Amino acid sequence: MSQDTSPAKNDLIGTGAFVVFLSAGLFALNTPFAAYFYGYGGDPLVVMTVRNAVAATMTFGLAIMLGQSMRINFAQFKLYAFLAFGQFLQGACYLGSVAFIPVSLAALIFFTWPLLVALAAPIAGDGRPSGKAFLFFGGAFAGLALALGPDLDTLDIRGIALAILGAIGVTLYLVFGRKALRELPMLPLATYTNIGAMLLSALTWTVVGGSLDWIAADDAFDAMMVLALISAVYSLGILTQVWALKRTPAPVIGLLYNLEPVLSIIAAALLLNERMTMMQIIGGGLVLLSLLGYSILQSRAVQ
Length: 303
Prior knowledge:
By secondary structure, the protein is mainly alpha-helical. The chain contains 13 helices and no strands. The protein has one domain. α2 packs antiparallel against α10, α3 packs across α10 and α4 packs antiparallel against α8. The longest helix is centred in the last third of the chain and has 28 residues.
């Protein structure tokens, strides 16, 4: 049997894996920074609308600077709309789920999406992961369960359903985004998907009767600075994620993004003075060891 030595495979331990890790870290910062914004009276849909608008503006500007065409045909428009819906579904449903169930439980359910990505990898042409790979995935998932410490006594079917929909949304975006990037430029793709997600977020915020009272508060300037910081971090996360989508196999992306909730816990401890329990430390260590083992397994497979 011939070995797969494509650039995407060989990038596993190198630049591709590093960029995935960087992207996960940037996204992980969104949660603790958003906590500050919510303290000023803001809400998740405002965060989603503004950060998607900033990300779209940045990717559009880069595309123009690099001379990339922003013209799209009808078939491409349909694909962009599909990816935008996946991106919106990811954020709206995940953030909405915590209205019904604890954040830790919502995060655990939401972060089943790496398994969904691995299962859907054949759609993007990456091949199905081996049985040994799923053993490492099981270790990473068990580590997440320990690190996030879900309160299993508090269950609400609405919250569970929303968290699952959020996981499906990010799976759609990652798998079909990789497939789209084989034919479409990554900056126009990022621009149009963020515009679509922004419009869906703004529309949802209008329908549910969102409030902008925080703008008139005495600390409105501080709130806006935090919102700007969230938008900047998110935009950089989008850029690194889109870059990684084109150079790293989908199962690897899914497993490395398991680091995001662990990094969120660390960021919350540093920025919000939240205490990490021994169980969270043990769980985070198990995640890291599982991901390291998987990386070694994949590196041997491409040699």
